[in-house]
Write a structure and sequence with these properties.
26% of the residues lie in helices and 35% in strands. With 141 residues, it is an alpha+beta fold. Bound molecules: coenzyme A.
């Protein structure tokens, strides 16, 4: 799961993030399999800064047994509607590692525009070569 995100994390780090994500209004959503009620992943957005611009950044994750079924694309589509409705920023950026094929496919599928590549430090101390994908939430409105 963390191959393209700097590797495995400690239990403490996961618990700390979980508690932040569970706070109301965090912008982070659990993806639930309707049939079983199981939690199968997460998708969420947060405020960021890119260049001089205030943006949303978005991320996603689906557990291995549920991958490859279109769940990430469907869940991300819903969360983009939430970000659009909140209306704080015009652009959403995603920064998947250049070799993270499924993540880059999600961006392509949801009509993000590939702006270029960039170096991202995540987590601190780990340099990653990432694609910079951008979606204009006002496009077509
Ligand atoms: C990225 C991730 C969320 C995708 O979840 P998913 O539910 O399997 O994705 P979907 O089924 O919605 O598929 C999304 C696209 O990826 C493609 N895809 C899926 N697995 C793929 C693979 N191994 N190689 C290439 N493309 C792949 C699908 O074909 C689909 O593209 P399409 O709609 O053009 O056909 C999942 O692989 C994951 O959690 N990875 C680990 C965490 C991670 O890297 N998160 C992203 C950080 S930027």
């Amino acid at each position: 799961m963390m191959r393209h995100l700097g590797g495995a994390e400690s239990t403490e780090k996961i618990a700390e993030r979980q508690s932040r994500y569970e706070r109301p209004g965090s912008g982070q959503f659990k993806i639930v399999d309707r049939a079983s009620g199981d939690g199968v992943g997460w998708v969420g957005f947060w405020d960021g800064e890119w260049g001089e611009q205030q943006i949303y950044e978005i991320g996603w994750s689906v557990t291995p047994p549920f991958q490859g079924r279109g769940i990430a694309v469907a869940a991300t589509r819903q969360v983009l509607d939430v970000a659009r409705a909140q209306g704080r920023h015009r652009y959403v950026h995603a920064f998947p590692a250049v070799d993270n094929a499924p993540s880059n496919a999600i961006c392509r599928r949801l009509a993000f525009e590939l702006i270029g590549t960039c170096e991202v430090e995540y987590p601190p101390g780990n340099q990653m070569r990432c694609n910079d994908w951008r979606l204009d939430l006002l496009a077509g409105r």
